[in-house]
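Sequence design from tokenized structure. All designs in this work follow the same two-part layout: the structure record, then the generated sequence. An example of the structure record is given first.
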């Protein structure tokens, strides 16, 4: 079994495509079961955020696993694998572990150093546990990634500026409207992102009103930040009064249409309105951005800023030394986990080899007792000890070495060689074994699906 990461993120895909593949909680549950129900996937975890949809899966074949996962993603998006392939990235084994840890640390986020993704990964892991789609292979990987994320934020200064998508978006609004202290702000959505938005706004001194499809949730959030709750059917009136709208619901369709915004604008007396849309898919009709007096800050705008200057985090406040320290921690933890996984992977081979040797010794001693029935007990015992010592000494070096070599990249190949040479539990011929374990060692991290040309191997025996 091997770890595979296949997904789409803000690094490679436009927001329109991220909207197309975005998932609600029910979508994620369905996707998890589709994945583990496919031919080559045994375990799966799906991380779905406003920046990415990524699948981390244990697979028994490289190309077969990619094919299974990409087909599930394509079906969910209502697209073909060919249409998605230029935007889908693939990470394998050590690369996949390193990528997950990098994501957990906030190093792959649109706003480098943000902490929300760590909570999102924790929730994704909890959901996969609840649905029974993670097992002994993914458990330690997910737990290590969560540990790495916590270590990075505790031991480096990567998040000392407290940057998040919300804070960065509000900075863009502040640059236009000025200080938000005392200004009326409407937050639509009472989930995790809505809570972060309301809390951030309250800290900046804004007067917060919260509206949600679930009034009780909106009321609790409003109370926690010293604000008030408003019903969604009062949206036009609330927009008339607000200087800023922050919307981040989990809806699958438009929540804020041009009609309601136009109605509010007509009653504002020419006051500008800033709208921050951090939902995926977007809550606000794209046509709203064309209305006079409206400033819209959304994921597409923030992604465009990142694309204009890839070397600079959107927040612009994370020191290079802190980023380097975070990457060093990720590399250290990834190396430790790789050694643990590879040592665990060769353990069954070592055990099988020693068991097979013991069976051979027992069979030969039985044969000896049959051929030499008059051999006295003392001599028989000494012969048995001598034969076992010889076998132990012969096996000592290869078993110790295969454990040592396991910690190096490609180390499990030595265990595969032992299994092939000694016939340890092989279900097929050596050619089948080779197809199962052979992957291009030069596969670059984050290779796109189109570059792998996975479609050409869909019908292969792998």
């Amino acid at each position: 079994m091997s770890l595979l990461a296949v997904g789409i993120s803000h690094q490679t895909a436009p927001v329109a495509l991220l909207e197309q593949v975005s998932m609600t909680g029910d979508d994620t549950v369905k996707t998890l079961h589709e994945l583990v129900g496919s031919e080559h996937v045994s375990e799966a975890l799906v991380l779905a955020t406003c920046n990415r949809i990524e699948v981390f899966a244990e697979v028994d074949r490289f190309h077969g696993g990619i094919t299974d996962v990409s087909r599930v993603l394509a079906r969910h998006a209502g697209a073909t694998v060919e249409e998605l392939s230029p935007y889908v990235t693939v990470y394998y084994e050590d690369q996949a572990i390193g990528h997950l840890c990098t994501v957990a640390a906030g190093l792959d986020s649109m706003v480098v150093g943000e902490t929300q993704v760590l909570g999102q990964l924790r929730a994704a892991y909890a959901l996969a546990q609840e649905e029974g789609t993670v097992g002994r292979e993914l458990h330690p990987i997910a737990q290590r990634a969560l540990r790495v994320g916590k270590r990075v934020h505790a031991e480096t200064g990567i998040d000392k500026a407290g940057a998040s998508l919300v804070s960065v978006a509000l900075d863009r609004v502040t640059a236009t409207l000025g200080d938000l202290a005392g200004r009326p702000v409407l937050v639509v959505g009472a989930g995790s992102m809505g809570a972060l938005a309301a809390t951030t706004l309250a800290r900046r001194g804004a007067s917060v009103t919260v509206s949600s499809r679930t009034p009780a949730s909106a009321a609790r959030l409003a109370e926690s930040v010293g604000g008030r709750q408003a019903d969604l059917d009062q949206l036009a009136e609330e927009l008339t009064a607000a200087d800023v709208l922050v919307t981040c619901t989990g809806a699958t369709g438009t929540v804020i249409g041009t009609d309601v915004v136009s109605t509010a604008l007509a009653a504002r007396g020419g006051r500008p309105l800033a709208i921050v849309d951090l939902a995926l898919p977007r809550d606000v009709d794209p046509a709203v951005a064309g209305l006079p007096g409206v400033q819209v800050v959304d994921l597409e705008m923030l992604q465009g800023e990142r694309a204009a200057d890839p070397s600079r985090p959107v927040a612009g406040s994370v020191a290079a030394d802190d980023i380097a320290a975070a990457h060093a921690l990720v590399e250290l933890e990834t190396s430790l986990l790789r050694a643990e996984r590879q040592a665990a992977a060769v353990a069954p081979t070592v055990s099988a080899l020693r068991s097979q040797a013991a069976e051979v010794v027992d069979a030969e001693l039985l044969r000896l007792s049959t051929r030499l029935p008059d051999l006295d007990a003392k001599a028989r015992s000494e012969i048995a000890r001598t034969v076992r010592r010889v076998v132990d000494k012969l096996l000592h070096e290869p078993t110790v070495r295969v454990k040592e070599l396991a910690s190096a990249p490609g180390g499990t190949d030595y265990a595969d060689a032992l299994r092939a040479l000694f016939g340890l539990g092989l279900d097929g011929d050596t050619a089948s074994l080779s197809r199962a374990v052979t992957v291009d060692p030069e596969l670059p991290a984050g290779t796109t699906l189109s570059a792998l040309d996975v479609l050409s191997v869909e019908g292969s025996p792998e």
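The chain has three domains: 2-161+319-337+444-457, 165-308, 347-437. We note this feature because it recurs in several other targets discussed in the main text.
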